[in-house]
């Protein structure tokens, strides 16, 4: 097929043959077809390993295969036969690598030995593990104080590795734990406890079979959690209404063919998903939620009065606030008509058990936490907690992002946890709050941060204001990346830099006591074991756990923690977790032996509210604005979203099948009406500029303008390419989560040959660089 960009409307259902074809293609490209197929069968099975793609749970029902197109892609890129060799590093300077696209970096394959940056030659050179740890330990010890170091975690890291990492860092003396969840579902983790006493979802997968209505707000399950489609298809077959609220009519929310349904596949059939599609404007969700509540409050019979009386407080204040919110405001901000909001409210009122799912379209706004609390309000009005088929369902991203937080990756640790940690190990953990992602970037820019260590992920490319952050990162004394593949974070590095390659989840991990297993927690609080089955990508790789333990020993020579014992036997780490978190993890090892693991206690599921008052709280948010107002005429809100062919900063291809784009990621989706108003034409080149009052010019040009059915004033484009437009200081106050779905911008024709901005830095993954 041609490498030329092409753009056309996608007319087919999502899923189906397209998904199967794409799966076969990536397995072929990464040369994993032979071992890939058997490996796929072990994915998400009780004795196998957990898919490293998304956090959607594995249902108890036993199927021959429990995977999806994007899970297969994640596995294919992890099990690729390609390797980054010494010769590669010897022949390519880091400055040359920096000119390549993210796709190219990723395509070089798996890293196989530790590398050290040599500033004299601008090359990464091989170094021994011992030398790497000794130097990292020495640099950390040489800091004036431990708060000068930043320790990032991305959500693939296992419970065992994350727990030890957090013990190491606290013994070292800081709570600087920037985490990928700070950019993701943190508004859920920080917002929801005020409402229901816990910052996690309250449903389990079997609830989907008992729900009478399902809402999907600001989430694209067909691409980002495809296994969720199985539950949605089943619900539609039971005539359960599904309400989708999204500025983009995502194809899988409209109609879907199950790749695992032979009859549907053979007959090219499909299932209609959304019974009501709400074409909300970007940032209009608060208005929609208040509109639905307004209708409900008109008919007190629709409410669960008994539940409200027995379990909640704050109803009167909420009712007064909702009453004061007028329809004209609701309609203008949401872009929806009152009639549609009334239809949706009627669906919600009729249903005796409703699940509300939501994703980044809710959380990544300046009032993301407050929007999550309004979702909780809506559910509380009808007692949709603690009964079968009902509850709140934040759909998390990384496969263990929830678990990492549960076991200690937290910049604001609770006193109870710190006391337990002290009781277990005897050292005095730091009590001051540490840095989340935004604080870390601020400290880098201010020059107070000196060392950055990344446990997985691609911090530098996932954060806001990337060009500013790149510059700040390169001023650090040392950067360390624990990683499987090359990414931007290895070419944007500190004065000293180390790449420490690790074993991946699909690979076996042999230590002194034999093959080890690790465990993860999915988005519905199920904890399960995972055991890799493939030979590691190279003989010199270490497990993340081993890397943490050796880094800790090199940094804290007199450590009181038995690091060596932990590396020899991971079940001892689980025993330690059980001691530090006795309520959640008692008998961890025993319970993990059950085929599908175990479910962590969730008070709200039992109508036990761990709030100061012991009740669930209706919380008032005045107004309907999800973001700070901006008044410039012609201003638009830009949502940075994922394509179908990427996993966060890992780009699988330049295609976005369901949005009809091939071989291009440097595009902007806009409605025809908005183009006309601005005198822009489809397929022309445009420049997008951020509107802020901070005096910094943020601009990305040379973008192809594509017609897409978005509401007026709303546009979309791809993350991470457009991250230079996202201002660091635009974040949700309660959680620190950057407002990546709501960047205030102007869009202008791009005429100049001189295109200042991001495309000049050579880091974009645009059409010009298609491999
Ligand atoms: N294949 C694949 N799977 C993934 C990932 C991946 O990159 N690729 N990433 C993983 C991670 S870490 C995460 S967090 C999840 C993310 O999964 P999602 O939450 O689905 O993330 P996005 O694609 O960023 O955005 C979701 C939707 O929000 C909509 N949206 C934008 N602005 C608004 C708004 O103001 N209101 C509403 N209602 N909707 C809005 C967009 O149109 C889009 O459909 O997926 C995980 N799974
Ligand atoms: N503008 C904008 N910005 C966003 C978002 C957005 O929607 N818009 N989404 C935000 C969200 S939701 C998230 S979660 C963050 C994601 O931020 P991160 O989690 O930091 O980014 P990823 O791209 O998932 O990280 C991929 C890298 O992880 C490494 N890796 C892969 N597997 C393993 C492994 O098994 N072990 C180790 N040690 N390393 C591994 C590889 O080097 C790979 O390059 O981005 C955020 N940034
Ligand atoms: Mo995420």
TrEMBL record:
Q: Which InterPro entries match?
A: Asp_de-COase-like_dom_sf, MopB_CT_YdeP, MoPterin_dinucl-bd_dom, Mopterin_OxRdtase, Mopterin_OxRdtse_a_bac, Prok_molybdopt-oxidoreductase, YdeP_MopB
Q: Where is the Molybdopterin dinucleotide-binding domain?
A: 637-743
- Identify the domain of life: Bacteria
Recorded source organism is Lichenicoccus roseus
Alphabetically sorted, this entry's keywords are: 4Fe-4S, Iron, Iron-sulfur, Metal-binding, Molybdenum, Oxidoreductase
- Annotated Molybdopterin oxidoreductase domain residues: 110-396
Essential cofactor(s): Mo-bis(molybdopterin guanine dinucleotide); [4Fe-4S] cluster
Q: What is this protein called?
A: FdhF/YdeP family oxidoreductase
């Amino acid at each position: 097929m041609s490498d030329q960009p092409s753009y056309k409307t996608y007319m087919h259902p999502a899923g189906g043959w397209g998904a199967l074809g794409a799966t076969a293609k990536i397995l072929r490209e990464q040369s994993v077809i032979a071992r890939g197929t058997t490996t796929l069968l072990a994915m998400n099975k009780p004795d196998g390993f957990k898919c490293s793609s998304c956090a959607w749970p594995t249902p108890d029902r036993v199927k021959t295969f429990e995977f999806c197109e994007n899970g297969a892609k994640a596995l294919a890129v992890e099990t690729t036969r390609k390797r980054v060799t010494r010769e590669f590093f010897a022949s390519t300077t880091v400055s040359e690598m920096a000119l390549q696209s993210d796709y190219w970096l990723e395509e070089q394959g798996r890293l196989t030995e530790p590398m050290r940056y040599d500033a004299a030659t601008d090359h990464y050179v091989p170094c021994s593990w011992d030398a790497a740890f000794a130097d990292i330990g020495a640099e950390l010890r040489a800091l004036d104080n431990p708060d000068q170091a930043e320790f990032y975690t991305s959500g693939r890291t296992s419970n065992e590795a994350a727990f030890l990492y957090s013990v190491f860092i606290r013994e070292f003396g800081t709570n600087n734990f920037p985490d990928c969840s700070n950019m993701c579902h943190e508004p859920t983790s920080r917002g929801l406890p005020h409402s229901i006493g816990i910052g996690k979802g309250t449903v389990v997968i079997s609830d989907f079979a008992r729900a009478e209505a399902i809402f999907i707000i600001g989430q694209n399950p067909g691409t980002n959690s495809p296994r969720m489609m199985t539950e949605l298809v089943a619900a539609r077959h039971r005539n359960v209404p599904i309400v989708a609220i999204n500025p983009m009519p995502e194809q899988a929310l409209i109609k879907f063919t199950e790749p695992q349904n032979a009859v549907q596949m053979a007959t090219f059939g499909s299932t209609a998903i959304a019974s009501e599609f709400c074409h909300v404007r970007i940032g209009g969700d608060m208005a929609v939620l208040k509109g639905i509540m307004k209708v409900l409050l008109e008919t007190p019979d629709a409410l669960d009065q008994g539940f409200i009386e027995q379990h909640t407080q704050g109803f009167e204040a909420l009712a007064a606030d909702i009453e004061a919110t007028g329809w004209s405001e609701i309609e203008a901000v949401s872009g929806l008509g009152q009639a549609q909001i009334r239809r949706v409210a009627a669906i919600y009122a009729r249903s005796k058990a409703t699940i509300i799912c939501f994703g980044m379209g809710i959380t990544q706004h300046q009032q993301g936490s407050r929007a999550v609390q309004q979702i909780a309000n809506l559910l509380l009005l009808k007692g949709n907690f603690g009964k079968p088929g009902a509850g709140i369902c934040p759909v998390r991203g990384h496969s263990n992002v929830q678990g990492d937080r549960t076991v200690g990756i937290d910049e604001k640790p609770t006193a109870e946890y710190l006391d337990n940690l002290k009781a277990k190990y005897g050292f005095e953990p730091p009590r001051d709050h540490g840095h989340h992602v935004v604080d870390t970037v601020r400290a880098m820019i201010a020059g107070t941060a000196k060392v950055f260590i990344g446990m997985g992920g691609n911090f530098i490319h996932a954060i806001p204001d990337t060009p500013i952050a790149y510059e700040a990162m390169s001023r650090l004394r040392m950067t360390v990346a624990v990683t499987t593949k090359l990414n931007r974070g290895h070419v944007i590095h500190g004065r000293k830099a180390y790449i420490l390659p690790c074993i991946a989840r699909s690979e076996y991990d042999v230590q002194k006591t034999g093959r080890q297993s690790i465990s993860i927690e999915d988005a519905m609080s199920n904890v399960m074991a995972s055991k890799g089955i493939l030979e590691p990508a190279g003989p010199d790789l270490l497990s993340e756990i081993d890397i943490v333990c050796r880094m800790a020993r090199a940094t804290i020579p007199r450590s009181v923690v038995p690091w060596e014992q932990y590396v020899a036997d991971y079940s001892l780490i689980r025993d330690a977790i059980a001691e530090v978190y006795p309520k959640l993890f008692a008998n961890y090892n025993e319970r993990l032996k059950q085929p599908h693991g175990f479910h962590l206690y969730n008070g709200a599921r039992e109508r036990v509210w761990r709030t100061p008052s012991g009740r669930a709280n209706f919380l008032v948010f005045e107004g309907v604005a999800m973001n700070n107002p901006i008044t410039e005429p012609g201003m638009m809100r830009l949502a940075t979203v994922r394509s179908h062919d990427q996993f966060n900063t890992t780009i699988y291809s330049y295609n976005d099948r369901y949005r009809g784009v091939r071989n291009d990621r440097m595009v902007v989706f806009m409605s025809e009406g908005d183009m006309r108003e601005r005198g822009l034409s489809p397929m022309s080149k445009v420049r997008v500029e951020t509107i802020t009052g901070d005096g910094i010019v943020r601009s990305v040009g040379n973008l192809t303008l594509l017609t897409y059915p978005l509401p007026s004033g709303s546009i979309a484009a791809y993350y991470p390419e457009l991250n230079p437009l996202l201002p660091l200081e635009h974040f949700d106050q309660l959680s620190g989560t950057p407002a990546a779905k709501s960047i205030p911008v102007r869009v202008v024709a791009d005429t100049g040959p001189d295109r200042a901005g991001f495309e000049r830095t050579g880091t974009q993954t645009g059409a010009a660089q298609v491999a």
